[in-house]
Amino acid sequence: MHQLLLNRSIYEELILSHLPEARQFVWLVTADIKDMYIETAKGFAPLLQLLAELVANGVAIRLIHAKEPGPRFREDFDRFPQLVANDLFERILCPRVHTKAIIIDNRLAFVGSPNLTGAGMGSKHRDKRNFEAGFLFDDRQQIRELSDWVDALYLGEFCPSCRRREFCQDPLDSGFG
Predict the structure, then answer these.
(1) In a 10 Å sphere around its CB, with 0-12 CB exposed, 13-18 middle and 19+ buried, how is residue 150 labelled?
(2) Which domains does the chain have, with CATH numbers?
(3) How far apart are CA 33 and CA 104, in angstroms?
(4) How many CA atoms lie within 13 A of 158 on its CB side?
(5) What is the pLDDT of residue 139?
(6) Intra-chain end-to-end CA distance of the chain, in Å
(7) Is the separation of the CB atoms in 98 and 66 below 8 Å?
(8) Contact 79, 45 (CB under 8 A)
(9) Of 83-97, 104-118, 142-156, which range is least confident?
């Protein structure tokens, strides 16, 4: 499968349909992250609630983003102790990250233009959304290449040659020599 997703279909197909089906892990890579809300059976809830539920079910979450999120995201984040104090939830900042990608269980991946925000992912009102595009795919080789790249990013393999270290609050390679 190789499927083009545009605007609201990113939210409906990826966030509402596939993300809740994760069973092992979800890797989220984004430049910007905000207090995104999603539709649930009980109304609207922060995306963080879904991530907390996934963690409670044993799904490991890795979130890589480029800058500190805003105060509303941090307030929402603090409401979910499953994320704050759990080894299954990992979050790092890398000021060089501009990639937008989601990998689910190494069986499905999305790469596209939207940041992990309501306007980017299409969860906001149709007149308040960004114009976004991306591809959802299940090609095992492409997912493996993307996963290996995200893992190298997460492990700090690009830190020594980054040339932006002065902007990095917590260099990922700082504990390795």
Answers:
(1) buried
(2) 2-158 (3.30.870.10)
(3) 18
(4) 15
(5) 98
(6) 42
(7) yes
(8) no
(9) 83-97
Nearest residue to 66 via CA among 33, 100, 31 = 31
Q: Identify the pLDDT of residue 173.
A: 62
Q: What pLDDT was estimated at residue 177?
A: 41
Q: What is the pLDDT of residue 174?
A: 56
| 82 band by pLDDT with thresholds 50, 70 and 90 | confident
Which residue is listed with tokens 């910007």? Answer: 32
Give φ, ψ of 76 to 5 degrees: -60, -45
DSSP 14: I
Query: What integer best gives the mean pLDDT of the chain?
Result: 91
Tell me, rounded to whole angstroms, the distance of Cα 35 from its chain centroid: 12
Burial of 93 (0-12, 13-18, 19+ CB in 10 A): middle
Token pair in block for residue 127: 């007149």
> pTM higher than 0.90 for the full model?
yes
